[in-house]
Design brief:
Length: 198
């Protein structure tokens, strides 16, 4: 493998091909599924992997949205929102790990890099600027609703495919966690100064 010197460092870096990737072949294509002996047809596993990777991208985006709002919380509701956003961030991070492991269990490759997540997510990108707490809560409520809609559809499809493990994960993990968080966000939005002044 040819190496070139990285700018600003004394270390040598592997050379990249025209697409920006290392010259070595991949172990598995992103769209493919490996042979797995889990009594579930390859076509069923492939469909579940596609559904789960979409939910994974959205869940990673929602996790990051919580961290953004945690860092940018301000105003009279700063402290309770700061804590709530951090707690929900951690719960979304746990979901991410479980969803990614399910993708791997099915023989798929889970989405992993921020650029790929940004390209794949169905959630709207927030502005870089700090938003008022009422707008943060609205944005989070909208994101939860989108994730819940997709998770319910994916759970129904997994049941049709006979993929009980994915269905269980979606219902007991993704849906229940997002429903509870959406409830907390709704209740918090009722307590925010902007909602009381209406």
């Amino acid at each position: 493998m040819a190496y070139e010197k990285s700018p600003g460092t004394g270390a040598a870096a592997p050379s990249l091909d025209a697409t920006g990737t290392l010259g070595a072949p991949s172990a598995q294509s992103f769209a493919g599924v490996a042979d797995m002996r889990i009594a579930l047809a390859r076509t069923s596993r492939a469909q579940s992997v596609a559904l789960l990777n979409q939910l994974l991208a959205d869940t990673m985006t929602l996790r990051d949205l919580y961290k953004k709002h945690h860092w940018q919380a301000s105003g009279p509701m700063f402290y309770p929102l700061h804590l709530l956003f951090d707690k929900h961030h951690d719960e979304q991070a746990e979901l991410i790990d479980v969803i990614a492991e399910r993708v791997q269990t099915l023989g798929g490759t889970s989405i992993a890099m921020a650029a790929d997540v940004a390209e794949a997510t169905s959630l709207a990108r927030p502005p870089r600027e700090r938003e008022e707490s009422s707008q943060q809560l609205t944005r989070l409520a909208d994101a939860h609703e989108r994730v819940l809609h997709a998770a319910r559809e994916a759970a129904r499809r997994a049941a049709e495919l006979g993929d009980d493990g994915t269905n269980d994960l979606l219902v007991s993990g993704v849906i229940r966690t997002n429903e509870k968080q959406a409830w907390f966000i709704h209740e918090q939005s009722q307590r925010s100064p902007a909602s009381r002044s209406r």
